[in-house]
Each structure stands twice: as structure tokens, then as C-alpha cells.
């Protein structure tokens, strides 16, 4: 496979500015933790509302899930509306649609005035089997009842044989880094401050609300918005029991066959999505899918190979120019958590669990959180309140997710390594024996061996080696670590302990 650019397509020639590390104590009106969609939009709206705001990011802004997206801006979140109507009622589903439509319209309004490759597109969900044909037809019935601008069609412009598809009109796509780069610059013009390489370690909210960084500095404020993909501070909200992490994969291919326009996703599993972007030198087709729970499943390289085979079956001879993966958090009822962290923490707010639709729901988070912090009424806030826990289907999913966690907790403890650390080849990693002890090993391309205790520092599950991304992934709650053990993604906050050779 030829992968000239292992980084996501979006990073190429975007020229994101670097921001300083926090090197002092600070007092502001609000602190926003997390430099992705939700964090940037929340900070922007708060600054527009006249607040003195600091945005802090553990790594670089726009380097996490936002930088690894397929960048569809749509209120069509798979086959969601019939499911929402069945479980929660028509008004609930209508609020979900209208709230995401507001986010979509806002992005389109701002995007038309800046250089971010914004293009309006129709979005399709298609069925390839009779089983999912019925589900697509039921989803169309939901569209009709909710007044969604959609259509049921027998064929789609993409050269794929289908049973039927549902199309949602007037959706969009864009270059996410260009768009949110503009938003960051606007935030700074409004007086906002951005600090990178500034991990937040905890929050104190006894006498005053303070965000404490890993370097020991504190940011005193009136309100905190946690927009760190997985909340770095739980506050006994038990978010790790109410969400699970799912990985998906994207490749960018070049083909002589022209892409017909539109954005497409199948209804079946494994998932497949298609859209194109215009870049210097021609058109790039993005193919995504191959979803699975983080830390579980086959060798991740096989997922990329499956997407390449899919691309060849649809577009003929292709060349893979980019490949990357993303990790998404899914709540037990498939609706994001946006609002007060817990009833006992009225000054701390959270936005998480965007499933795979963070372009709209992340933007919506900024709208809702800023309204709550500014004291404005938001008619959609109750729908997304983290304190909700609806019996159907939340309890069923809550139980199944935690049974799955228990299964992998035990399974990992019983895993027997098949290799010793000395047998690892250059660029290879895995669970190995080293001096009579089980541990995680990785031999880098220079031949150096990196050994860690591969037990996740969150709740003790055994992490699995991800050969495609060269990371240690936790199958229980989705924490990810570098080969050397550094935390890449929570809920874990402490690194995997290193083991001396």
C-alpha cells in the first residue's frame, strides 16, 4: 500500500498557528478545556457574549477527533429518527432534528464568508439488503412525520447497486481545519486566550472554581466547560459507564473515475461512507467505515485493506494517498451529553458523546453550553442534559456495555503472550514475555525496545496493541496510549508505567 501522507488530508497545507503553553496562574470569567469543535465554538460564543475566556488544550488545537473527521455537516445521522421516535416520541425526535439543523445552518452561514471549501451536498443513507430496506423505509416515514426535507429513491448517483435509499436535501461538507482556524482567530480578536501543551489535571470547586494544570498552575474562573472528547474530570458523573468508544477508518484515494457528488453512507454493517474533496492536483475521494469497539477486533491494518478493496470495487483502479483513523464516543441512548456535569457541580459543564456526527453536534454543544453559562434560555438544553437517564433504551445499553467491560477485564487478565520481547521485529508491538513477566512491548524502527505495563491506569483492563496506529488501546473504556505509555486519550489520566529492559 502506498501511503504518502499518513496524517489526515486536512493537515496538508493548513498552516495552523502554534500557541503558547500556560506558564502562570490566571483568573478569567470562563475556562474552556479542549481545542476541538465543541471547545472552540463554546469559547467563541462566550467571547461574543462579552466574557473573558481562556481555551486550553493538552496537545495542539484541532489535532484530535476534529482533525480526523470526514467533515460531513449534516442532520442525517444514519437511521436515527425512527429510533428516536420509537423510544422517546415524536417531539423528542423533532427537537433533535431542529437543533442539529440550527448548527448546520450556522456553519453554512459562517462558511460562505470564508475560504473553507464549503459545498452544499445531498446526504444519502442506502440499503443493500432486504433487512435494511425495511429500516430505510421506516426512516422515510419518520422524515414525513417530522417534516424533514427528504426523499425515498430507487437509485443513487454513486455506482453501487442498492435496494433503496433515503436522501436528506441541503446538507454540506467543508474543510474543518480551515473553518475552525477562522473561528479561533475570531475568538482571539474578541479578547480570548489560547494555550496549547497545557493538560488539565483536575478541577477544584469548593470555595472557588479552579482548573489545575499538570504543571501546577491554576485558572480561577466562574464557569468551566469540559470539551475534551472524554471528560478529563468526572465529578462522580460516571461517564465511563455511560459511553463506549468506537474506532473507524478513513482512506483518501485517487481515481480516474469522477465522483458524482453527494455524501453517502450505507445502513448495513460494516459501515461504508463516501464523499470527495477538491485538492491541488485533482479530486480526492474519502472512503470511511470499518467501525469496531476500541481495543477490540482484528489487526487494524486489515481495516484499511478492506476500505481499499471497497474503493477498487466502486471506482476501479485507485491509488491510496492518505489514511487515518478516528475514535468516537457513543452514549447509551445515542444522544450526546451536553450541559451541567452533575447536579452537584453547577459551575462545571460538559460536552461529549457525539457518536460520529461531531460537526453538527459539536457545534451545537457550543451553542448550548454558551447559553447555559451566559444565563440564556436554550430550548434544546433539556434534550441533551447529561443528568437524563431514560429507561428505554438506556438501561438495556447500560447493562450490556458494562457486561462487555467485565468480559474484557477478565479476558485480558487471562491472555497468554505467544512471543518474547526479543522476538519483536522492527516496527512491531504486542503483549510479550519479558524476564518472566507479561508486559507490552514495541520495537521502533531504530531497533529500540519500549516496554510498558499494559494494564490500563483507568480501571485495570488490559490494553491491546493497535498495529495500524501504533498505540495501546483499552477495550473497556477507550483509553489510548503511545508505545512509550503516554496518554493519548482518556478517561485514563496516568501513563502506562515503563519497564526497564
TrEMBL record:
Entry's Gene Ontology molecular function annotations: 2 iron, 2 sulfur cluster binding; metal ion binding; monooxygenase activity; oxidoreductase activity, acting on paired donors, with incorporation or reduction of molecular oxygen
InterPro entries from the UniProt entry: FAD-dep_OxRdtase, FAD/NAD-bd_sf, Rieske_2Fe-2S, Rieske_2Fe-2S_sf, Rieske_Fe-S_prot_C, YhfW_C
Record-level GO cellular component terms: cytoplasm; membrane
Pfam hit, one: DAO
Rieske domain location: 416-501
Keywords of this entry: 2Fe-2S, Disulfide bond, Iron, Iron-sulfur, Metal-binding
Name this polypeptide is given: (2Fe-2S)-binding protein
Amino acid at each position: 500500500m502506498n501511503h504518502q501522507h499518513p496524517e489526515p488530508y486536512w493537515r496538508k497545507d493548513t498552516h495552523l498557528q502554534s500557541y503558547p503553553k500556560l506558564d502562570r496562574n490566571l483568573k478569567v470569567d470562563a475556562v474552556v478545556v479542549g481545542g476541538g469543535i465543541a471547545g472552540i465554538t463554546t469559547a467563541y460564543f462566550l467571547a461574543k457574549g462579552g466574557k473573558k475566556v481562556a481555551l486550553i488544550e493538552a496537545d495542539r488545537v484541532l489535532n484530535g477527533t476534529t482533525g480526523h473527521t470526514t467533515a460531513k455537516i449534516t442532520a442525517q445521522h444514519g437511521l436515527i429518527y425512527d429510533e428516536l421516535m420509537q423510544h422517546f416520541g415524536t417531539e423528542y425526535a423533532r427537537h433533535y432534528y431542529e437543533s442539529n439543523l440550527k448548527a448546520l445552518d450556522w456553519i453554512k452561514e459562517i462558511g460562505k464568508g470564508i475560504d473553507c471549501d464549503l459545498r452544499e451536498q445531498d446526504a444519502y443513507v442506502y440499503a443493500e439488503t432486504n433487512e435494511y430496506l425495511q429500516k430505510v423505509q421506516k426512516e422515510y416515514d419518520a422524515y414525513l412525520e417530522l417534516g424533514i426535507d427528504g426523499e425515498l429513491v430507487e437509485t443513487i448517483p454513486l455506482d453501487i447497486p442498492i435496494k433503496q435509499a433515503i436522501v436528506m436535501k441541503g446538507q454540506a461538507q467543508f474543510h474543518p481545519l480551515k473553518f475552525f482556524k477562522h473561528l479561533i482567530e475570531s475568538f482571539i480578536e474578541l479578547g480570548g486566550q489560547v494555550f496549547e501543551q497545557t493538560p488539565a489535571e483536575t478541577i477544584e470547586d469548593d470555595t472557588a472554581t479552579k482548573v489545575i494544570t499538570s504543571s501546577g498552575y491554576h485558572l480561577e474562573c466562574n464557569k468551566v466547560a469540559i470539551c475534551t472528547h472524554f471528560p478529563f474530570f468526572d465529578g462522580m458523573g460516571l461517564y465511563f459507564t455511560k459511553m463506549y468508544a468506537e474506532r473507524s477508518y478513513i482512506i483518501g484515494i485517487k481515481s480516474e473515475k469522477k465522483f458524482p457528488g453527494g455524501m453517502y453512507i450505507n445502513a448495513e454493517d460494516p459501515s461504508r461512507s463516501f464523499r470527495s474533496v477538491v485538492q491541488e492536483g485533482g479530486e480526492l475521494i474519502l472512503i470511511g467505515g470499518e467501525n469496531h469497539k476500541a481495543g477490540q477486533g482484528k489487526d487494524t491494518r486489515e481495516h484499511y485493506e478492506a476500505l481499499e478493496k471497497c474503493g477498487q470495487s466502486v471506482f476501479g483502479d485507485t491509488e491510496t494517498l492518505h489514511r487515518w483513523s478516528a475514535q468516537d464516543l457513543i452514549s447509551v441512548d445515542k444522544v450526546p451529553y451536553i450541559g451541567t456535569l452533575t447536579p452537584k457541580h453547577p459551575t462545571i459543564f460538559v460536552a461529549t458523546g457525539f457518536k460520529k456526527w461531531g460537526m453538527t453536534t459539536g457545534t451545537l454543544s457550543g451553542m448550548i453550553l454558551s447559553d447555559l453559562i451566559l444565563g440564556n434560555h436554550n430550548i434544546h438544553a433539556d434534550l441533551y442534559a447529561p443528568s437524563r437517564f431514560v429507561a428505554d433504551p438506556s438501561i438495556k445499553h447500560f447493562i450490556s456495555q458494562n457486561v462487555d467491560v467485565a468480559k474484557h477485564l477478565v479476558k485480558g487478565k487471562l491472555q497468554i503472550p505467544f512471543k518474547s520481547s526479543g522476538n519483536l521485529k522492527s516496527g512491531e508491538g504486542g503483549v510479550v514475555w519479558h524476564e518472566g513477566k507479561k508486559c507490552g512491548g514495541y520495537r521502533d524502527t531504530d531497533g529500540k525496545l519500549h516496554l510498558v505495563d499494559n494494564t490500563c491506569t483507568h480501571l485495570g483492563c488490559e490494553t491491546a496493541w493497535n498495529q495500524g496506529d501504533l498505540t495501546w488501546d483499552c477495550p473497556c473504556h477507550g483509553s489510548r496510549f503511545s508505545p512509550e505509555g503516554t496518554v493519548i486519550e482518556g478517561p485514563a489520566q496516568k501513563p502506562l508505567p515503563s519497564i526497564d529492559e
